[in-house]
Amino acid sequence: MASPPPSTGPVRLVVLLSGSGTNLQALIDAIGDDPAAYGARIVAVGADRDKAGGLERAERAGIPTFVCKLKDHATRAEWDEALTAAIADHRPGLIVSAGFMKIVGPAFLAAFGGRFINTHPALLPSFPGAHGVRDALAHGVKVTGCTVHFVDDGVDTGPIIAQGVVEVTEEDTPEGEAALHERIKEVERSLLVEAVGRLARDGHRIEGRKVHLGHVGE
Fold first, then answer.
1. Same domain for 206 and 126
2. Which of 11, 22, 58, 132 supports an S-S bond with 122, CB 3.0-4.6 Å?
3. Residue 169, C-beta contacts closer than 8 angstroms, at least 6 positions apart
4. What CA–CA distance (Å, rounded) separates 187 from 70?
């Protein structure tokens, strides 16, 4: 699976979130006033709830926003189709999950498979799921970290784009999980910014489980 052919301008990004939007802010700051240099520009920010703090960050940056709530739809499939349509209106080259706490479905993946990027606070394929930091600590690992990956129809099983390592110290106990998670988030933000920029500037292709940067044929 390959990325679309190179465009004449920055890649169009749609960012999805559910919370405060710190990863979104990292992308906004990295793009700054020169999306051509970064390789991408954020054309819309979507959320699954009205009160997501990241929507305010987007509005302050002058980025259009939209909300697609699960409870507004009779079934999860209908929500998935509505979310897909809302994103498609913005003609994105890449979609970034910046803390989007919903699992997308078949309609979404049919439209945007190989273009939807997520982050996870562990070194996949180890410790997938909602408690990656807690599970890594319980397992007694000496290093953990974060993963930027493409989303597929599994739980944190998509092809890996990039990973960052964080040391686990003697002070990192289950009771202090939050402190370790904050260190992971710091690495995660910079890793996401770097990965999205490289994908936007260089393109990519997916062969099996491997992600190769660079446009096909180059």
1. yes
2. 132
3. none
4. 31
73 is catalytic: no
Q: For residue 5, is it within any domain?
A: no
Range of the structural domain that residue 90 is part of: 10-112
Q: What are the residues facing 163 on neighbouring strands? A: 147
pLDDT per position as a tens digit, 12-51? 999 999 999 999 999 999 999 999 999 999 999 999 999 9
127 and 102 both lie in a single domain: no
Which pair of tokens denotes residue 203?
Answer: 């393109």
pLDDT in tens, 70-105: 999 999 999 999 999 999 999 999 999 999 999 999
Last residue of a domain, one of 112, 133, 166: 112
Q: How far apart are CA 78 and CA 107, in angstroms?
A: 9
Q: Which residues contact residue 89 at a Cβ distance below 8 angstroms, ignoring those fewer than 6 apart?
A: none
Same domain, 86 and 129: no
Among residues 185, 144, 133, the alpha carbon closest in space to that of 22 is found at 185
Among the listed residues 120, 149, 181, 204, the single catalytic one is 120
CA distances from 88 to 32, 59, 82, 91, 135 (A): 24, 20, 10, 5, 36
